[in-house]
């Protein structure tokens, strides 16, 4: 559904992504994990077309990202970032409908879609009238998720969507996200720095280090068949309590 082929990216002569290839399939959630600065956010920005790669290509459902196709293909992808990225001067509802209204959707169609999404992400009706600053962190991320899903994209990219939430709210949103991902059957790429979260939410984990994919596999495979000592060290450093002896 979403594929990146041989992506290279440098900033000021410093390589951030080495030739890196990755694909994401419909109905599957893949967690991108790795030390801070290993290129997770850059990869996601390249996948959604916010940053251009120095070399390499991105395909959405087999169609290549080009300056001409970018806008159209971007509408087939939803993107959620850590702080939500909502416009502070627009109500939650207007944030969610901004693009659809720009694309000429009727008021009825938008209202119908909002009702579906609100139920899906469990956002109280009254929250839609509020501005982002008047919502809790968890509610803001639910609104961001609604916005990302408004056009019913085939691909969902999330960059540490729960990174700024306190533990209780985070656990709630994790559980709800798991249901949402399962219900929608989209190709999901989720950046997280929390291995427990990756194991809970994703079918597969993609472990990155300095712009290279070190290993891709289930949590179990990372534990039992680490590709190298970095994998073992990374897993141990996370000290996931449930899995520790
Ligand atoms: P991660 O999300 O894995 O923490 P990033 O993709 O944000 O990592 O960053 C990877 C590397 O690229 C870091 O060394 C970061 O400093 C650098 N980098 C990211 N964006 C920029 C930018 N716009 N300009 C210069 N360097 C950047
Ligand atoms: Mg990042």
Automatic annotation (TrEMBL):
- Classification via SMART domains: AAA
Pfam families given for it?
ABC_tran
A GO term, aspect molecular function = ATP hydrolysis activity
Q: Which domain of life is it from?
A: Bacteria
Q: Establish whether keyword Transport is in the entry.
A: yes
SUPFAM superfamilies linked: P-loop containing nucleoside triphosphate hydrolases
Family label: Belongs to the ABC transporter superfamily.
* Keywords recorded for this protein, A-Z: ATP-binding, Nucleotide-binding, Transport
Q: Which InterPro entries match?
A: AAA+_ATPase (IPR003593), ABC_transporter-like_ATP-bd (IPR003439), P-loop_NTPase (IPR027417)
Give the protein name, as stated in the record: ABC transporter ATP-binding protein
């Amino acid at each position: 559904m979403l594929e990146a082929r041989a992506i290279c990216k440098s900033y000021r002569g410093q390589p951030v992504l080495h030739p890196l290839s990755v694909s994401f399939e419909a109905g599957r959630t893949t967690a991108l994990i790795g030390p801070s600065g290993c290129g997770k956010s850059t990869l996601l920005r390249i996948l959604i077309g916010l940053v251009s790669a120095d070399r390499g290509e991105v395909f959405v459902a087999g169609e290549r990202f080009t300056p001409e196709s970018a806008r159209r293909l971007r509408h087939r992808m939803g993107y959620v970032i850590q702080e939500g990225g909502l416009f502070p001067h627009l109500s939650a509802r207007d944030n969610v409908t901004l693009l659809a209204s720009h694309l000429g959707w009727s008021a009825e169609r938008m209202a119908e879609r909002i009702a579906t999404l609100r139920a899906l992400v469990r956002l109280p009706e009254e929250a839609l009238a509020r501005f982002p600053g008047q919502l809790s962190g968890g509610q803001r991320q639910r609104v961001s998720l609604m916005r990302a899903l408004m056009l019913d994209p085939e691909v969902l990219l999330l960059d540490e969507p729960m990174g700024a939430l306190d533990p209780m709210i985070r656990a709630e949103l994790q559980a709800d996200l798991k249901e949402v991902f399962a219900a929608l059957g989209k190709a999901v790429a989720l950046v997280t720095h929390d291995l427990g979260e990756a194991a809970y939410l994703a079918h597969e984990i993609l472990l990155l280090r300095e712009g290279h994919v070190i290993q891709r596999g289930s949590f179990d495979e990372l534990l039992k068949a680490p590709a190298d000592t970095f994998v073992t060290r990374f897993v141990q450093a996370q000290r996931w309590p449930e899995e520790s002896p």
